[in-house]
Amino acid sequence: MLNLKLRLGGIKLQKNKEETNQLKSVEGDMPPSVLIPLSMHIGKEAKPVVKVGDQVKKGTLLAERDGLISANIHSSISGKVTQLTEIMIGQRQVKAIKIENDYLNQLELLAQEETLEKVIAAAGIVGLGGAGFPTDVKFLGSTCDTLIINAAECEPFLTTDRRVICEYLEEVIAVLNLLRDTYKYQHITLVIEKHQLASLAFIKEPLEQANITLKIVGNHYPQGAEKILIKNVSQQELTLGRIPKDLSICLTNISTIYAIYQAVYKQLPLTERTITVSGDAIAVKKNLRVPIGTSVEWIIEQCGGFSKQPEKVIMGGPMMGRLLPSLSEPILKTTGGITCLSSEESLIPTETSCIKCSECINGCPVGLMPILISKAYREGNLARAQELGALNCIDCGACSYICPSKIDILSDIKQAKSEILKKIEREKK
Amino acid sequence: MSEFSYVLRDKVMSGPHIRSSVTSLAIMKQVMIALLFPTVAAVYFFGFKVLILIVISILIANLLEMSWHYFRKKSDQSNDLTATITGWLLALTLPVTVPVWILIVGNFLAILFIKELSGGIGYNLFNPAVYARVLLKLFFSDWITNWVSPGTDVVTTATPLETIGYFRTTLPLDFYSWTDLFFGFNLGGPVGETSKAALILAFLYLVFKKIINPWVPLLVIFSCFGTMFLYSGDFRFASAHVLSGALVFAAIFMVTDYTTTPYTDRGKYLFAIGCGVLTAILRIIIDLPGGIGVAILLMNLLTPIINRYTMTRIYGS
């Protein structure tokens, strides 16, 4: 009753992109060594094919995919394998290979492959938007009729997708034409946020000529979330547990498209990526092209170090990124940026009582009533939390961000979700 | 490397790592700024004594809340300004002739009975100021309805509403002029409610600062107007009802209360329409003014039910 239309509200937040938006991506100094994790994707860890002491070139295969949902890993610099070790990334322990730089810059190209999927697989390309799903699997036997290219980088501070549009538009269009020819897509849509429109006016004509639709979405966060994009582009909704393929939609990030270009036309595997180094605690903000496996510490050094005491260094953006426990962690294939925040910018005041202002309800992009789920969880009522749609939460954090009482609603919902999933697991057995 | 080193103090936690700068306290401060508009008008029309009454009411409200927190050992609770707003609102709904003991009783009802006994901020079912005002009206009518006209001479008078309510359908011939009704000249009544001009400024301020949804007060007023128009068939009569009594004041400051109204916009709109229609009906069938207060309390009772039927639609459902 009375539930006619879904509000795709989202929230307004300070984007903090002005300073890096216009910065051409540059290359920093070569790091003395890189530490390359063997799991930078969703699925199984890759199997190492090198041993300590081996000489490798940039592009040499270090580990090959293990099973279908997995991805190849290549060396991002030329040098010598000095260590096969294990490191912590977030809560996960993963194998990693350390390579000392020999500064010879030798390059190894990909072998020729027969099909596009095989090229993508060989190059170890995964979704660069953050999820890290192996890209070849996404396209495998694709029968979708719509391809959506996500360039609506809604996370504050990050501008790498935008730089790809500015710097490699021709290359992106070439790949999109190739994908259209291969998979017979009827519609290809490139999605950008409204605030970028003026400065990206030059893309309209080339896109039109290539028969690619430009879709402009609002400036609200999180417009770049998969479910929200699908709703905006196709008016369809993904029901719980279904994937875009079920709606005949294939969705890819624009940086992934550029990685495909490198693999197809240059025979280069995915060994480097552009990241935005930003935040008020960094001395010089940059869009930096770095070898995968470079340590965060080296990257910060390339940006002149800190200008203020850093309170939080985040892998990714401040909304959905991961707080780094130390600066020794390496850059992954899925890293879109490093955000260094001072305490002024990242201070989280203490929680006060909920005043029922409804901001989280108005802001939830998937139509949940976040505060009610949080309350249900705190009261220990998991059944109620599930009934309220806790499992539909996309973890965007809009509710926690907007809450004037500074209640960490998302953290409650996340815990509720994991407990509900555990319960469902138990009941299955 | 720079002189700054990175030490993670707290345990590793998930995002978001930033928060909006708007706090509950900041919202309450905006409401207080909005309250200045009717307050200035009240002081202009009814004299400096109004200010003293407001200050006393605010002091009593805070004193009651602080003592409650002290006795309940909730000493960590910092002042969120909500008691101040309740005390302030209550004072604005009373006449300038109100004795101080009425302020004490009223705040006692609002702060202790309604707010704190329900569990404190965010938990009360009824709007504290409205609840106190309605009970005062019920039990202490004699002390809070000796309205006086603005000006130096203390002359008891009727409020406009008393002359047009209770099964009347037309305006009396000697009814107030529209300018008087709008600006609050020569009108008796609760000090904060007589100047609609000041209230509209407060409304615009709250809308501009994004504290309230503009449709909520507008729907209260439109639905009350509509009901009165259907009842009387007289455009002027219905308009007079909008400009008389506490309707505009309550629509802006009470019907928009976060805690006691529904969660979703759809729910808030239903709530607002309910308040407007009920007010009109109560004004027609009950001999005394104060309809909007009772209407709000009745709708407060319905809030949980409205909430149940106006849940948001979950994406993909």
TrEMBL record, chain A:
Topology of this chain in the membrane: Peripheral membrane protein
Residues given in the record as [4Fe-4S] cluster 2 binding sites: C364, C393, C396, C399
Molecular function (Gene Ontology), one example: metal ion binding
Residues reported in the UniProt entry to bind [4Fe-4S] cluster 1: C354, C357, C360, C403
Location within or outside the cell: Cell membrane
Cofactor stoichiometry and binding remark: Binds 2 [4Fe-4S] clusters per subunit.
An individual GO BP term: electron transport chain
Cofactor: [4Fe-4S] cluster
Coiled-coil regions listed in the entry: none
4Fe-4S ferredoxin-type domain mapped to chain residues: 345-374, 384-413
A Gene Ontology cellular-component term: plasma membrane
Claim: Phosphoprotein is one of the keywords in the record: no
EC numbers, comma separated: 7.-.-.-
Highest rank taxon of the organism: Bacteria
Listed transmembrane segments: none
Protein keywords: 4Fe-4S, Cell membrane, Electron transport, Iron, Iron-sulfur, Membrane, Metal-binding, Repeat, Translocase, Transport
InterPro entries per record: 4Fe4S_Fe-S-bd, 4Fe4S_Fe_S_CS, Ion_transpt_RnfC/RsxC, Nuo51_FMN-bd, Nuo51_FMN-bd_sf, RnfC_N, Soluble_ligand-bd
Pfam families: Complex1_51K, Fer4_10, RnfC_N, SLBB
HAMAP family, alphabetized: RsxC_RnfC
PANTHER family the UniProt entry points to: ION-TRANSLOCATING OXIDOREDUCTASE COMPLEX SUBUNIT C (PTHR43034:SF2)
Function comment: Part of a membrane-bound complex that couples electron transfer with translocation of ions across the membrane.
Subunit structure: The complex is composed of six subunits: RnfA, RnfB, RnfC, RnfD, RnfE and RnfG.
Family: Belongs to the 4Fe4S bacterial-type ferredoxin family. RnfC subfamily.
NCBIfam families per UniProt: PRK05035.1, rnfC
Designated name of the protein: Ion-translocating oxidoreductase complex subunit C
Native source organism of the sequence: Vagococcus intermedius
Lineage: Bacteria, Bacillati, Bacillota, Bacilli, Lactobacillales
Gene: rsxC
UniProtKB/TrEMBL annotation, chain B:
One BP annotation, GO: transmembrane transport
Presence of the UniProt keyword Transmembrane helix in the record: yes
Transmembrane segments: 43-64, 85-114, 181-208, 215-232, 238-256, 268-286, 292-310
Pfam families in alphabetical order: NQR2_RnfD_RnfE (PF03116)
One Gene Ontology cellular component: plasma membrane
Keywords (A to Z) from UniProt: Electron transport, Flavoprotein, FMN, Membrane, Phosphoprotein, Translocase, Transmembrane, Transmembrane helix, Transport
NCBIfam families: rnfD
Protein name as annotated: RnfABCDGE type electron transport complex subunit D
Gene source species: Vagococcus intermedius
Lineage of the organism: Bacteria, Bacillati, Bacillota, Bacilli, Lactobacillales
